[in-house]
Amino acid sequence: MVLYIIDHPYHYEAENLCRVFYPFDKVTVQHEFMPSDENRTVYTAEENGEYIVRIEDADGKTERKAKVDAETEYGMVSLLFDAFCAHTGKMPRWGMLTGIHPIKLLRQLTEQHGEAEAARLFREKYFVSNEKTALAVRTLRAQKPITDKVRENDYSLYISVPFCPTRCAYCSFVSQSVEKAKKQIPEYHRLLLEELKETAKVADALGLNLRAVYVGGGTPTTFSAEQLSEMIRVVKDSFDMSQCEELTVEAGRPDTIDRAKLDALLKSGVSRISINPQTLQDNVLENIGRRHTAQQTVDAFHLAREAGFTNINMDLIVGLPGDTYETFCDTIEKVIALDPENVTVHALALKRSSFITQSGEINKAHADAALADRMMAYAEKRLTERGLEPYYLYRQSRMAGNLENTGWAKPGTECAYNIFTMDETETVLACGAGGVTKLKNPYSEDLSRIFNFKYSYEYISRYPEILERKEGIAKQYEQFRKRLH
Q1: Please, which residues bridge with residue 346 across strands?
Q2: Secondary structure letter of residue 278 according to DSSP
Q3: How far apart are CA 50 and CA 7, in angstroms?
Q4: How many CB atoms lie within 10 A of CB 26?
Q5: What is the bridge-based pairing of β-strands 436-440 and 405-409?
Q6: Taking Cα atoms as reference points, which of 344, 388, 390 lies closest to residue 143?
Q7: Bridge partners (DSSP) listed for residue 60
Q8: What is the tens place of the pLDDT at every residue in 171-196?
Q9: Angle at the Cα of 98 (from 56 to 252), degrees rounded to 5?
Q10: 3-class SS letters over 375-402
């Protein structure tokens, strides 16, 4: 597909809409019109006070025009959305919303207009379906008691452990398999602890209040029990934990979990863990490159309960290769039978660097949006019946069925970190390879980012530069506070 962007600045929005309607097309952007032999072209331009949109392919030609109005971005994007709907006969469930954070948008609209009007705007201005609007409203209501407590100097801490037993076929994270990176782990662990200590000094000097700690990856339980204990000890010794309400560790892969690690985590004060099956179908696990069985996931869950964990999350994915509606529903029922406090349901997003995408393997749920939608609807129905509420939600490009990722929780067991990072409510200081520090201006919606190196070998070889970048945190907060005063 060739996307022409002529004399208007809405490149990002137009390209994302192309991916909503044609998730498998490679989009080539051109800023000058030249005839193309591509089988699909999308022309968007501002000419003589009008927006012009034209879609041409083997199915025909669809054209729309409209005068430029005060809401220039909305005018162009809505015109393109209308043209795509007419050309394809499709009406995406999230309408013309393409951003990662729809709940953040709903929160802003609610603060301005009230809940009822915000919901109406979702439905009538952004063309979000009644079902997804209702899901968004439920999510905002569930997270409001937590976001209402955020103060201007609050922050969360993210710790990255970028190693996994194997790399899943759908994965695009910067994690590396232990088979290839095992020798790096001791040095990575040592430097990570140093970075944590330095980050604590910066946070203390700025007078920041730590609300939540989240250890993710990768699979943090690729660390040994001793390494996990030492990491959490350093966190507790270095940071002021007096106002920290939760400490989450992604145990993730059941083939990395044993009683010694669970005991070490619980003894260290970890309050929440994730045991992520993604599916409880052995053939689907094999398809995605996981070297464990569904029974191992069940056994790991029971082991965590025996160890004493009372807040456990389980991740599931809609749209995995080889999964059917019936087998997905079977997975949901098996997870419900385990009775976890949290269940996170993801729609599989096809990323360029994943094995699935690179191999050209397109699974049925991506080709059949209705199938993915049925799977997600079943999960929503059954989790609601079990008393769980949606408490955070985000979206990605090229998702199965153009759907969403939603975290569900029993009331009182919500993971505040997930809300803070997805709603961009407060600062997140990140340590480790692939970590992204997000500095939230407490006086506005502005957010700035400081990136760590993506890969563990870069993190190790260029570690002094990581510490230099930490200086940017204090400088940015100085700017935030100058704007206030």
Answers
A1: 317
A2: B
A3: 11
A4: 9
A5: unpaired
A6: 390
A7: 57
A8: 655 455 555 678 999 999 999 999 99
A9: 125
A10: HHHHHHHHHHHCCCEEEEEECCCCEHHH
17 contacts: CB under 8 Å, gap ≥ 6: 77, 80, 81, 84, 96, 98
SS3 at position 453: coil
Alpha-carbon distance of 208 to 367, in angstroms, equals: 47
Residue 452 binned pLDDT confidence (cut-offs 50, 70, 90) = very high
Q: Taking Cα atoms as reference points, which of 56, 4, 9 lies closest to residue 30?
A: 4
User: Residue 77: CB partners within 8 Å, gap ≥ 6?
Assistant: 10, 13, 14, 17, 96
- Does residue 351 have a pLDDT over 80? no
Task: Report whether 298 contacts 255 (CB < 8 A).
Answer: no
End-to-end CA, the chain? 50
What's the chain's Rg over C-alpha atoms?
23
Q: Looking up tokens 């591509």, which residue turns up?
A: 38
Instruction: Kindly give, in sequence order, each residue whose CB lies less than 8 Å from that of residue 98, ignoring residues fewer than 6 positions away.
Output: 13, 16, 17, 19, 20, 395, 397
Write the DSSP string, 348-366.
PB--TTSHHHHTT---HHH
261, 240, 260, 239: which is closest to 251 by C-alpha? 261
Asked if residues 318 and 348 have their Cβ atoms less than 8 Å apart, the reply is yes
Residue at token pair 């137009």? 14
Buried b (16+ CB within 10 A) or exposed e, 306-332: ebebebbbbbbbbbbbebebebbeebb
- Identify the H or E element spanning 106: helix 102-113
Query: Starting at the edge strand that comes first in sequence, how are the strands of the sheet with 389-394 ordered?
Result: 389-394, 405-409, 342-347, 312-318, 272-275, 246-252, 209-217, 154-161, 427-431, 436-440, 447-451
Whole-number Å distance between alpha carbons of 158 and 452: 12
Identity at 271, one-letter amino acid code: S
pLDDT tens digit sequence for 50-83 = 999 999 999 999 999 999 876 667 889 999 999 9
pLDDT for 421 equals 93
